[in-house]
Model the fold of this input.
Amino acid sequence: MFNKAYIIAFCLLFSLNAAAKEMSRMTLEDGTEIMLNDDFTWQYVLLTESEPLTAQLTPAVMANSALMTSTVSQGVRVTFKSAQWDDEELGLDFSIDNTSALTVLKVTVAATLFDDGGNKITTTEFNVWQAQNRLSETYLRKNQQRDSRIFKLDGIDPAQWQKQFISLNIIAVETR
Done:
């Protein structure tokens, strides 16, 4: 039988390596830059290396905005579907796909909106999918695809968001 101290030490040892660290960067033939991580994952480099307070999209990403409208974590893919304007209120709609063997109960996403010049407007977090407790028909099971409800954002100028630059990042996935 394992001692509690051994279990805690074992968990700490492996949790230190949980965050992926950048190993190198590469530029693809089309000019898009990618970052290679030490956990055998990769991701697009979306922002320029300017001042930390001013986030701006790279020219390659602005030319192909589809690079940032989808994100995957733990077998769950979240994709930006559409935007609807209701007066001055922006509504965002997403698609959620589960390819993992686990049942998904909740998916939390951070969405960063950029204006037509590639400058960051805002970042907001919301649950794109949340099952209801003890209602199994609301769970997102393996190989299922569901649409999110429409999320409303205030304070976005429609004239500055014509190109619909949005970057998604899955923050948390709760499974059963």
User: Anything to note?
Assistant: Residues 5-18 have pLDDT under 50 and may be disordered.
